[in-house]
């Protein structure tokens, strides 16, 4: 599939901000045998006084910007063309849960895709007893790791209601779990904690979701903004697989990857600091248009 993407993120301040420094992660990745970034650009208004590009630990391209002068709003616009490849359906070669620790310990790598980075707590995902109890239903089973991942994805989709007004970007997984409502970030964070509580490495994926569904298909939840889903390490042979608990589907050609991380804090599209006070209004618009 070939897509044209556009993203607009705007911040409107009650009081002009100054000395603003931000890091942007909004450009889709190029991933072997998965997706290819054909062309892309990011424009920031007002124009930054300083701008530099770097690659973070998880090998994502990021842009650092500095705006010194007072400004009442900040606009970030990204445009890109991306080709997404369909993934072959593979047999389930993942181990049963009891065998997974042995395969994790046999992995000596600590590169960005190593499962060791995705087992324990991370900045936004502390151990949560309620979610661990929720996941315990799969612990005594003889299911494979991949089967457990699919079961967790389906159960969260069944038990939670997609509700953009129920939570904010700062809502904790514990709060979202008690509400049983939220958006893709909440669905993904709960699923990651549930899997990690079982000893299954799991991480967060930030990206985009196809806006216009294929003929005869329903529109997917979360397509109006940047989307999130979950990647799960299913053993040495099966490797990483990606599941979307918001829609209870495997990530496929409708999903376009921007960044991988342990949780939202590693992949937030915009983070930074500025000098100001009062409130701010945030606007976001996304278009993912299929070309063929």
From TrEMBL:
Organism field: Rhizobium lusitanum
Domain Transglutaminase-like, first and last residues per copy: 176-247
UniProt protein name: Transglutaminase family protein
Coiled coil: none
Matches recorded under SMART domains: TGc
SUPFAM superfamilies, per the entry: Cysteine proteinases
Pfam families the UniProt entry points to: Bact_transglu_N (PF08379), Transglut_core (PF01841)
Domain of life: Bacteria
Annotated PANTHER family: BLR2979 PROTEIN, BLR5614 PROTEIN-RELATED
